[in-house]
Design brief:
Strand order of the largest sheet: 5-4-3-6-7-8
Number of strands: 10
Helix content: 10-25%
Radius of gyration: 16 Å
Strand content: 35-45%
Mean pLDDT: 92
Order of helices and strands: EEHEHEEEHEEEE
Oligomer: single chain
Number of helices: 3
Bound molecules: inosinic acid, magnesium ion
Shape: globular
Largest sheet: 6 strands, mixed
Length: 179
């Protein structure tokens, strides 16, 4: 198997680029159907969601807007439990149909800290779309409306997700190799 090394760790192929794109395309179709006569505003959470957001956005056939914010809660392969807002939300979301785009929902801490800030601004509706969800890792339960893949509680890399800054460029997903 094509094992890769990133920093000090080894990763094995997990989901192929085609499998991912196929799911993202299906999600785009579902969203287009659910928001047929609306003009949703996507809020993409950087950095990890950039690739997922770009691919999803390209598959949309309805009018839609997108903006990007930055929150970070991760250092290395274990959640640091710290959420920092680096780039804030400067678009007016009051009365808008909001869809939050997350690369992965792990403990749920990032979103559970961010969601009250969104609700405060009284959007007309709010849904969450995640490329990946690790149900076993949940500490702060969050209702996720759209999920591409539910995955085991193992560290993954690629398709926008990093391990200490590296691996985001990989077009497929890799999983941390157990020793
Ligand atoms: P949460 O706050 O614990 O849900 O973690 C959310 C953030 O941690 C995600 O948006 C990712 O940026 C990062 N993260 C969680 N699990 C992984 C992983 O397996 N690989 C890479 N980043 C991860
Ligand atoms: Mg993220």
């Amino acid at each position: 198997m094509a094992t890769i090394q990133v920093h000090d760790k080894y990763f094995i192929p997990y989901l192929s680029a085609n499998e991912i794109l196929e799911k993202v395309k299906q999600l785009a179709e579902t969203i287009c159907n659910d928001y047929k006569d609306k003009r949703p505003l996507f809020i993409s959470i950087l950095n990890g969601s950039f690739m997922f957001s770009a691919d999803l956005f390209k598959f949309l056939t309805i009018d839609a807007e997108i903006c990007f914010i930055k929150l970070a809660s991760y250092k290395g392969t274990k959640s640091s439990g710290q959420v920092i807002t680096a780039i804030g939300l400067d678009t007016d979301i009051t009365g808008r149909d909001i869809i939050i785009l997350e690369d992965i929902i792990d403990t749920g801490k990032t979103l559970s800290q961010f969601l009250p800030q969104v609700y405060n601004q009284q959007p007309s509706s709010l849904k969450i779309a995640a490329l990946l969800h690790k149900p076993e890792a949940t500490v702060h339960p969050v209702k996720i409306d759209y999920i591409c893949f539910s995955i085991p509680n193992k560290f993954v890399l690629g398709y926008g997700l990093d391990y200490n800054g590296l691996g985001r460029n990989l077009s497929q997903l890799y999983q941390l190799k157990e020793d």
